[in-house]
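pinned: reference chain
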Amino acid sequence: MAYTFTVSPDFTPNHLSGWYIFNTWLQKQCGAAIHLEMYDNFQVQRKFIQHDQIDLIYANPFDAAMLVREKNFLPLVKAAGVSDEAIIAVNAKNAAEDVAYLSPGITVAVTEDPDVTMMGMIMLEAGDLDASNITTHVYDSYVLVAKHLLNGNADVGIFLAEAYDDLSNMVKKQLKILVRSQISVIHHALMVGPKLAARRTEIQDLLVAMNHDEKSQEVLKSLNFDAWVKVEDEEMEFMIDLMDTLAT
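pinned: its structure tokens
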């Protein structure tokens, strides 16, 4: 049987080749045919999830709730020492030094990344800003969010911290961070669907052991990860409950 693996569309482009390297490694270790399918946006990816055409996914925290509750996915692992954080940034020429100095009526550039946008909107509340007094423009990537900040089409950008950190130094020199979240318990996770559920423990053990093997360490390095750590069901439920709380 062939399986389909996909990655949340918010991954940084720098690591695209790394996911293909990882998929090749995983196929060899599992002795199974696993096809890596990348989707351009969340809407397209979710359509395939809804039609039960995804068996393995590196999922963002927002989609994890749907995958667990509606599609019976189970968590495998997360990247060690990596959490999802959001950054509020402006053009370096902007006089604001803090969210509190931002004014109603601003234009905010975001992506379709739901958990990051949600965290960013929560941080904007410190400046008495919400959906009722700002204009939001959605772009396909964080690179485009940065571009529109630089050319003046947006006043504020909400970034996944990892994506912001991966921007070129030339771009970052022209931007200014106002605030970075420090929630620390929200993270992407590698998850398996029902067709692979019987091999969950086997795959978990393979992944957790990757950093003990020199060749496998190189695979991890291609993703900019140091190691995988196991995600227990209780940890996943806690994160899902936290996401629900933040969304209310």
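why pinned: The mean pLDDT is 93. The longest strand covers residues 2-7.
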